[in-house]
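User: Predict the complex.
Assistant: Input components as received:
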Amino acid sequence: MPKMNMVEAINMALRQEMEKDDRVILLGEDIGKDGGVFRVTDGLLDKFGAQRVMDTPLAESAIAGLSIGMAVYGLRPVCEMQFSGFSYFAFHQMESHASRMRQRSQGRYSVPMVLRAPYGGGVRALEHHSESREIYWAHTPGLKMVIPSTPRTARALLISAMRDPDPVVFYEPKALYRAFREEVPEEEETFPIGKSRIALEGSDITLISYGESLRPTLEAASELNDKDGVKCEVIDLLSLSPLDDQLFIESVKKTGRAVVVHEAHCTYGAGAEVIARIVEKALLYLEAPIRRATGFDIVIPLYQREQDYLPGVLRIERAVRETLAF
Amino acid sequence: MPTTEIDLPYRINYLSILDQDGQVDKSLEPQLSDELLLKLYRVMLLGRRFDERMLILQRQGKIGTFAPVKGQEAQVGAAAALSPDDWIVASFREAPVEIWRGKPMELILLYYSGYNEGGHIPEGLNLLPVSVPVGSQMIHAVGIGYAMKYRGQDSVVATFFGDGATSQGDFHEAMNYASVYQTPVIFICQNNHWAISLPRNRQTHSRTLAQKALAYDMPGLQVDGNDVLAVYKAAKDAADRARRGEGPTLIEMVTYRLSMHTTADDPKKYRTQEEVAAWEKRDPVTRFEKYLRDKHILDDRKVQSVAEEVKQEIGSAERRWSELVENGVSPLAMFDHAYAELTPALRDQKEMLKRELEEKRGSAEKTAVSRD
């Protein structure tokens, strides 16, 4: 199997699906000639032409709205927001129309589109280029919200997203774009939307995370194992909406302890929903209060302080130790 | 009923006073004092040299990503046409305008080296902070203009944006509101021909950006955006109109981004070196220098002394920046200014970070001791 980074894996998913399905159209700012500011769509303009790889004028709301029209008419648009921080211009279209069209038309129309956007900190960027606000989308009924954590999951999830009958917001952890390589099969691979996976098996405590945060979570799990012999089970959510609670509930029933990790703000973050599900479905299995290791409830600071803001190994380990010591 | 033509008395003028060879059109030449002309030259040069210095610092890893302004320094002409009571609402490629206004260069360096403290606007400067989401800030100028009018003041507000911003709905909303409420706003579109990789002619099918003013029944004009005298005159006329209560104006500065969109971008991927070279010949700084030499405001000696002063000024700004970084406050400052008052949850989170920082320091010291 070829080893590739996340940029290459996403590029492959787009290319393979475009080869198979002429309904798939890419649109966004600088995605054609420039190949995208992260080069995710590099080479696709040359291969598929300007009708299918559209360098649009600068208007995020229009990009989302145009995609909705295309999708209603039977195409499968995959639009790119250059950074998730600029996707709020498009939020109105996604919230007011993409998410509601199926229900509003009582099933006559649907909006099978994908909105891709790089999100998250850790790349020493400017303001609006580092945030993690996936919950805006996950909180919106009618939208699906997924975040891969590795090249292979990115490729498989994106294929599934492009085939999904409903609008899917696909966040790409930009700090992982070129962070590591992984074997990705050339032949087709999908990953069902609405399913999580076990990233590491363990028995003492359940760590639940997703996206970029999975990396420090696994690092912390490894350190805790080496230093203290603590066996962490790590769940990679992948889908925030619909949220697969089955896997982490089963895990918590086994371990009796849990910590949720995400770089998004703490208050009303994904952790709040995960913990609510555990309380609803596995309260009597709990041996200790559940803790969260997250970003703070402030705008992520500029790059000198972003590492102090992000939930690193230290914050995760502390949360785990406090939970174990209870 | 027959179709009748609606007579819209509308045309778009292109204003140029100082051509690329430094030849001036005497009939249009604004009568500016030698002092002001020299200051314009000085700040344009400062803007150019500071930009070049920032690019070096960025390449050395001492500052992060920023948007170079090289080629667009004639923008200071618009700032010069305003009084300090007037407001400026810029985007992110207006360092020369900010410098004209008095924003300390050490703060600009502090901001781009990743410290939020650099975003501070000193008291007395009527300038909003950098606004990154393209096209989102113009409507704030309209709000400020409305407030000025509400208070019965004769101040005006200028807002800067690029050609890409004119595709955003927010641009049209701001133009419409400004027109409906007849607010004293000057919309200054810096058409630098490239929105990252998208050329101006694919950004909009319109022949000019200035003509977008027609839809909102406000005056729109194009100026040679590399001609600081034309930029000054257009902005001054617009400011005078606004002060008289005659509402907003759209000015399209036809200029060119000689450098990259930001330091994270490689323009070679989407445009030719020939195109860039052609625009280098229309450099705003060199033609203005020629003009000032012809007027005997500059000579070799003066050019050299201004260049030396500019160099010194950048050097001392860098020293002050280093001091700010060295005496820098703790990362806990990230909680400052979240709200007027910290919420209970934020107080807990700040405490958590404090403990983490102590722990990090502790383990760093332990490592240092064990190395000994």
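The first strand of chain A starts at residue 3 and ends at 4.
Let me know if you want any component modeled separately.
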